Amino acid sequence: MRNPYTTNRNRLADVIAAIQVMATYKFYKADHSTWAKRIEGNESNGEYWKTIFEDHPEFFRLGGGRNKASLVWRRNYQKLYNVDLEEKISREKFKALTDEQRVRISRVPLSNDDISTLINTAINLHSSEIDHKKDSRWWVAIVSGLVGIIIGSLIKVFA
Questions:
Q1: For the ranges 2-6, 60-64, 81-85, 131-135, the one whose mean pLDDT is highest
Q2: CB-based contacts of 36, cutoff 8 Å, min separation 6
Q3: Which residues have C-beta within 8 Å of that of residue 19, sequence separation ≥ 6?
Q4: 13-17, 45-49, 57-61, 141-145: lowest mean pLDDT where?
Q5: CA torsion, points 111, 116, 121, 123, in degrees to nearest 10?
Q6: Contact (Cβ atoms closer than 8 angstroms) between residue 127 and residue 6
Q7: CB 121 within 8 A of CB 95
Q8: Residue 77 gets which letter from DSSP?
Q9: How far is residue 131's CA from residue 109's CA, in Å, rounded to a whole number?
Q10: Which region holds residue 60: left if phi is over 0, alpha if psi is between -120 and 50, else beta?
Q11: pLDDT at 125 over 50
Q12: 43 Cβ contact partners less than 8 Å away, ≥ 6 residues apart
């Protein structure tokens, strides 16, 4: 089975960058072009980031007709964060808002500890995949040794 952490050499760095940006940006969910602009400064790479989000459901979820992405952990929180005031509001205050005002309400950004946990998880998953790839190549040394022995024997017999 293909593991997304080893599909390209920058994958871990991209996952970590996405986690950092998506965990702290004022809005918890955005389209892929917006995330591309926020993460790397180039909104034309939206499709690339969509692939990152799709390949890593352990961290990201697609919604809005698969046109928007969010961080799974952050989706767990209620929409009670006023992005303009940069503070959490009460459920009562939220209920009193108009539809127009509710557009400016998002989910609470993650704490530094939460972000650190997610980054460490990504690093551990990446390291596990690297170890798994190394473990799956145990037979290469044996086969190489056997081929060497066979070639050496053939040379000795025909020499």
A1: 81-85
A2: 42, 43, 44, 45, 46, 48, 49
A3: 59, 71, 115, 118, 119, 122
A4: 141-145
A5: 150
A6: no
A7: no
A8: S
A9: 33
A10: beta
A11: yes
A12: 33, 34, 36, 37
Strands 68-71 and 29-31: antiparallel
Reported as type and span, the H/E element at residue 119 is helix 112-135
Mean pLDDT of the chain: 88
Distance CA 105, CA 44 (A): 27
CB atoms within 10 A of CB 36: 22
Tokens 């961080």 locate to 71
143-126-44 Cα angle (round to 5): 115
Strands 79-82 and 87-88: antiparallel
| Tokens 């960058």 sit on residue | 17
For residues 18 and 39, is the Cβ–Cβ distance under 8 A?
yes
Q: Counting Cβ atoms within 10 Å, is residue 110 exposed (0-12), middle (13-18) or buried (19+)?
A: buried
Which tokens in the block code for residue 47? 């499709």
